[in-house]
Design goal:
This protein has one helix spanning 3-33, and strands spanning 44-45, 52-53. By secondary structure, the chain is mainly α. It has one domain (3-53). The chain has a two-stranded antiparallel sheet with strand order 1-2. It is elongated, with a radius of gyration of 15 Å.
């Protein structure tokens, strides 16, 4: 793997993590506005990268 490929992969992972954090914020905001509370873990799969977030 070249340095370019490694940097490109790391950048992609960071962007994926940023999208996941925005998703969590949105989920928690909707729950708060709707007067709900999450009681257990959410598992989501990133359709772009295939990564599973637990």
């Amino acid at each position: 793997m070249t340095a370019y490929e490694a940097i490109k992969k790391a950048d992609k992972d960071i962007k994926s993590e940023e999208r996941f954090n925005k998703l969590l914020t949105a989920i928690f905001t909707v729950c708060e506005i709707s007067d709900f509370h999450l009681e257990s873990r959410i598992v989501v799969k990133d359709k772009r990268t295939g990564k599973i977030w637990r």
